[in-house]
Amino acid sequence: MTLADSDRAVKAVEAVWRIESARVIAGLARMVNDIGLAEELAQDALVAALEEWPRKGVPDNPGGWLMLTAKHRAIDQFRRRDVYERKLQQVGRDMEVRQESAEAELDDALDDHIGDDLLRLIFTACHPVLPAEGRLALVLRLLGGLTTEEIARAFLVPEPTVGQRIFRAKRTLADKKVPIELPPPAELPARLASILEVIYLIFNEGYAATAGDDWVRPSLCEEAMRLGRILAGLMPGEPEVHGLVALMEIQASRIPARTAPDGSPILLLDQDRSRWDRLLVRRGLEALGRAEALGTLGPYGLQAAIAACHARALTPEATDWERIAVLYRLLAHLTPSPIVELNRAVAVGMAHGPARGLEIADALLDERALRDYAHLPAVRGDLLAKLGRAGEAAAEFERAAGLTRNSRERTLFLDRAAALRHDRGC
Question: Are 67 and 29 in contact (CB under 8 A)?
Fold first, then answer.
């Protein structure tokens, strides 16, 4: 193999790992019943791929190769160590059968009422024995593929804190001997809220990256939507599941229009709506219809209804901002939040004028939760600009640029500030 072939093989390993790592970890977790061990075995398979693929070439089924290699490593460990005997004692003959026919075990991914290893893993990672912050960090790490640093930025906490949360979550699941399985159907509704929250966090990290040089990470959005659709199939009578699916589908429809060719962001009102994915819009509206037919909309359903107002408007001018403002008021009543209020300020500003919107935004200046939130000064900057207060607006956009951790967004805010100062002659 030439040097060029070797480089291509290494790049193939990296690409396959980004795509398949969550599935490999999930499959192994169900086999070994230990999330920490599953991640270690998957990493072992990655190292083996980096050693073998440059010499032997990329296999026809690279994802399957990683899974099979990791599975064999697991069997070797069980046979070499005392762990093997302890596992046999813990789960008896069932585990022995799994070791004797491991390939059948891993191939049999449809042997329960969902049949999806990733979903089993997300239910386990959101198990009630874990604190809320541990559930979110663990799922974002294992299923979202986020680094500890990215999770730390999303949660606005120190990186070592997140690392400890992930470590403690894995250790707790192992110490409590939590099985890698779906909860009984009777327990599913009680576990649903945290699952929906985690899935939407994954989606949001893909839709508007908290850090780095990319404005969007579509692969995360796609994974979140896939998990959401599976949940909708599992719990067809839950309106909030359909509401979340609707919200993600409609928001994801805008992704092709959210960035310019150079990767810079394009805001909603400036987007070419002909580039919106109409199939995703249709699917999102259908999911919203299912949620509405099942009863009163919850927080995700209301957000989906807001997104639907944009999706139904062929031009920015056709947007029903009054309905959006009303929907945000309902959402604020249902789930009071300063971020919801900030979004309501934007809608009210569009529906009833920037002065009304600025009143709502100004009332949020003392909110501790928004102290370092870049979008508060950005919203105020936009409203001030519409009121002709260019100097104040430019200062707000500069403050927003200093708070954001995304380089694309920082450039957007600085460009807006520079344009305002130029127009004002500063």
Answer: no
Structural contact between residues 278 and 314, judged by C-beta atoms closer than 8 angstroms:
no
Kindly report the pTM of this predicted structure: 0.72
| Structural domain span for residue 81 | 1-112
CB 286 within 8 A of CB 258: no
Q: How would DSSP label each residue in 73-141?
A: HHHHHHHHSHHHHHHHHHHTHHHHHHHHTHHHHHH-TTSSSS--HHHHHHHHHT-TTS-HHHHHHHHHH
Residue 424 lies in a domain: no
The count of structural domains within the chain is 1
Q: Is residue 103 part of a domain?
A: yes
Q: For 271-282, write each residue's pLDDT tens digit.
A: 999 999 999 999
Q: Which residues of the chain have pLDDT under 70?
A: 1-6, 81-115, 144-145, 153-156, 209-215, 424-426
| Rounded CA separation 395/424 (Å) | 12
Calpha distance 404→415 (Å, rounded): 14
Rounded to whole angstroms, how far apart are CA atoms 157 and 139?
Answer: 17
CA-based radius of gyration for the chain: 24
CA neighbours within 13 Å on the CB side: how many for 172?
17
The string of pLDDT tens digits covering residues 216-244 is: 778 778 878 988 998 898 788 999 999 99
Amino acid at 373: Y
Determine the Cα–Cα distance for residues 356 and 61; give it in Å rounded to an integer. 58
H helix runs in 239-320, sequence order: 239-252, 278-293, 299-312
